[in-house]
Each structure stands twice: as structure tokens, then as C-alpha cells.
Write a structure and sequence with these properties.
The protein is mainly beta. It has one helix spanning 56-68; strands at residues 10-15, 18-29, 32-39, 71-75, 84-89, 92-97. It is globular and about 35 Å long.
């Protein structure tokens, strides 16, 4: 389902008070949200964690690293999500909640 420009939800990838990236959702196909990512310079140190993972064990290991570093996905208005999968390919991103 496409989203109109008036309704674009914006999310932030955060570690503590630092905004690592902003994500603008442009399409939703349950359970995935698709859109563009606008990374900060701080994101680059973690970018490798958001590549497509080859197997479920790798996904689990990445999620554990994100938990340890207290990285959350947070809507601009609402409660942060601690359990998620985020995949970044260039300027495009997709995420879902676990």
C-alpha cells in the first residue's frame, strides 16, 4: 500500500539521545515498511549491521548486538521499538517489528 505525501510516517533510529538515522516510510506491505533512509555520520559505524543477513542465526546475532548497544527504532510520536529488523540498501530501507 502506497502512502500519500501528507501521511509519510517518519521514524528515527536512535542510540540514547543520538539520532543515527531518519526513515521515511513510503510503502507498507505487512509486516514490512519500506522507505528512504537519511543516515547521520554516526550511522556509518553501524551500517554493516543492517545488511541482508544470510541465515536466522545471523539475524539473531545482529539483534543481540543492537540490544547491547541500546539501539531503538522510534516513531516521532510514540513508543520506541526495541525488537526490529532493519535492512538498508543504499538510500532504501525496509523494517519490521519482531
Amino acid at each position: 500500500m502506497s502512502i500519500s505525501d501528507d501521511e509519510i510516517p517518519t521514524w528515527e533510529l536512535r542510540r540514547g539521545s543520538d539520532v543515527l538515522a531518519k526513515l521515511e516510510v513510503t510503502e507498507q506491505d505487512f509486516p514490512w515498511n519500506f522507505g528512504r533512509i537519511f543516515p547521520s555520520t554516526a550511522f556509518e559505524a553501524l551500517r554493516h549491521l543492517f545488511r541482508v543477513q544470510p541465515d536466522p542465526e545471523s539475524v539473531k546475532a545482529v539483534r543481540e548486538q543492537l540490544r547491547q548497544q541500546q539501539v531503538v527504532l522510534s516513531p516521532l510520536k510514540g513508543v520506541p521499538v526495541r525488537e526490529f529488523i532493519l535492512i538498508v540498501e543504499g538510500e532504501l530501507a525496509r523494517f519490521q517489528f519482531v
